[in-house]
Amino acid sequence: MKLRHTIKADQFDIETLETIFETASKMESCERILARREMMEKILKHKSVALLFWEPSSRTWMSFYEAIGRLGGRPIPVINAGVFSSAAKGESLQDTIITTSQYADAIVMRHPEKGSAQIAAETSDNRKLGIPIINAGDGNNEHPTQMILDLYTIWQKKGNELKKGNLTIGFAGDLEHSRVFHSDAIALSQYGVNFVFISTISNNIPDWIISVLRQRGCCWEKTTEIEKFAPEIDVWNFTRLQSERMAKSAAIFPFYRSYLRRKYEKKFGCTGKLKEKMKPDAIILHPWPRLGELPEETDFDPRAVYIKQIKNGLYVRMALLQLLLNPNAFF
Ligand code: NCD
Questions:
Q1: Coil vs helix vs strand at 140
Q2: 205-219 tens-digit pLDDT
Q3: Residue 2: per-residue pLDDT
Q4: How far apart are CA 123 and CA 98, in angstroms?
Q5: Which residue, of 25, 82, 191, 277, has the greatest Cβ tally within 10 A?
Q6: DSSP state of 217
Q7: Given 3-state DSSP classes, what are the helix, strand and coil percentages for the chain, each rounded to the nearest 5?
Q8: Of 32, 29, 26, 105, nearest in space to 72 by CA
Q9: Using CA positions, which residue lies closest to atom 1 of ligand 1?
């Protein structure tokens, strides 16, 4: 694997993804054998990984933290970095990266600004800091490690169809602001799958993603009617309304926000009526946090894979850290 930084989905060709999936899968099975667990605990021995998070996080944060621990490394946790780090005193992102590189062997960062991870990677390269940067979400742009775990989940459940490009993937909801959807669409387009983008006319998948799909000869449909393509969709990907990333009016006024949310959840949610129309062997993904668009009763639907998807975040991040920081490790 020739990766250095992990900034965007487009860095991951099918071969690299396959290497990560195989490694994650091996780690998942090694977890059940004590002797293998002990071997895995040596992989990041004497290595530290900084977790610099300017934005809230549950799953990405916890799974990275735990992945570092299970590989025997030391996490350097900085939560609420805008308040807790010297960023609060006006320190530039570049200086925060220079500083962190003096203590850590890799930096996992989540930042509210699009392009921030790229700036951090350039700082690492220009200053010859020799530290890999892992983007754990940059604004509404990309979330490449979530993409890897989403595709790993699809690979586990529908690997043969994925390899043949015989899948129709439905993305429902906030297509414009979901960084997860952006990274997932870019990576999946390499497999030649079909896409259905379901949202309002004004909330659509960004043009730069459509250009990539066009270049790769992918087929896609755009619709505002969630049930329209239900009989064809094999993989459903839902998300919450990302109101904090929307125009100020929606982000600030609570009444307006809850009105928008109710409307959204009705139109782009995983409702009972929609589930009746879904294929019996479809799978349902959601990166979480979920709000009303993913009712709890769906947890008991055999097509729901999103809780396993949460767990997969751990294995995939263990695999990525091993491949980046100790590629020749034997376990
Ligand atoms: C997502 C994110 O942060 O973009 N969450 C996650 O990492 N699992 C999705 C979201 O916030 O809605």
A1: coil
A2: 999 999 999 999 999
A3: 74
A4: 8
A5: 191
A6: T
A7: 50, 15, 35
A8: 105
A9: 287
Residue 249: pLDDT band by 50, 70, 90 thresholds? low
Q: Which residue numbers are catalytic?
A: 59-60, 89, 110, 143
CA distance 221 to 239: 18
Task: Evaluate the CA torsion angle 37, 40, 42, 45 in order and state its sign.
Answer: negative
Which residue do the tokens 């459903």 mark?
A: 236
Specify the ligand 1 atom closest to the Cα of 288.
8
Confidence of residue 281 (pLDDT cuts 50, 70, 90): very high
Pocket of ligand 1 (CB under 6 A): 59-60, 137, 143, 146, 179-180, 239-240, 242, 287-289
In this structure, are residues 135 and 200 in contact, taking their beta carbons and an 8 Å threshold?
no
Instruction: List C-alpha distances in Å: 92 to 85, 89, 226.
Output: 11, 9, 44
Q: What is the mean pLDDT of residues 131-160?
A: 98
Edge-to-edge strand ranges of the sheet holding 74-78: 74-78, 48-53, 106-111, 133-138
Which pLDDT value is given to residue 53?
A: 98
pLDDT exceeds 90 at position 254: no
- 88 pLDDT band, cuts 50/70/90, is confident
Of 143, 145, 117, 113, residue with least CA distance to 132: 117
Helix 144-164 × helix 179-189 angle, to 10°: 30
